[in-house]
Amino acid sequence: MCGVTTSDAPLDLPVDLPGYQHVYSGKVRDLYAPVDSQGEPDPDRLLLVASNRLSAYDWMMTPEIPDKGEVLTRLSLWWFDQLSDLVPNHVLSTDVPATVAGRAVLVRKLEMLKVEAIARAYLTGGGLEEYHAKGSVSGIPLPDGLVDGSRLPEPVFTPTTKAPLGEHDLPMTLAEVEAELGVEVATEVSRLTRAILARGNEVAAQRGILIADTKVEFGLAPDGSGGLVLADEVLTPDSSRFWPADQWEPGHPQPSYDKQFVRDWLTSPESGWDRSSGEAPPELPPNVVEQTRAKYLEAYERLTGERF
Ligand code: Q0Z
To answer: What is the pTM of this model?
Structure first.
């Protein structure tokens, strides 16, 4: 019982896009293939569409968060530029159908690696659990005395499997990643994932945001040109834990930059919701939706220094 569940039907059903064929939907994003005049899907390109859907405590919230998809898409595009000296990326064009303008990107279709590339710069969540049990994270020994929210001496690579939708990913050892990808690719995935998080934190720390950890996805160009290509979204609040730097206090769970208003309301008596009941959460009230939207916009504006 770990599937994502909605209180009702999925919120913004994948839109019908003339000239595109719906391929797949994740929790918060949808994937389409451009089709040619014969109706054949383009073998080289995909359209990645970010929705306004939001999940919390493994439930999809209603209503949606206005502008969330566009904020995350524009933030990813900005990060791809910031990271372009480290790694090439999959972006081809932002010239997309008007119905998804601003929240969709046309990308190179890659052979995606079957590994979730995760790096952690601060200790929390699953990493903290392993540290308590074993004093290590993904088999990497860490100093004694670390607590929830502690900064790690340097980012560590903590890969997981890619579980099917609705199932939870499982930790992988570096040896398992090497067996899956080969030693050379595995080493490069580890190095790049840690470098992306380190660069992210160099930028974000100056702007009042800490990035505790992040998940990135890599693919290989199918033309056999060899190198790793950064795909999907990067360093967004959906793929990373963003923490407000001015509230960072190791020793307890940190507030989430983007979802804290939602979590606080859901767990307050005002919502009337019992998280352990198995019942769908109630509709978010307008002020919680608006405060959450404001946090996404604030993250975008602080990080990029640009108005949304
Ligand atoms: C990404 C995902 C979803 C959004 C496949 N450049 C690429 N080449 C091949 N495949 C992908 C990409 Cl980005 C790819 N995903 C994850 C699922 C919506 C992203 F439903 N899956």
So the answer is: 0.95
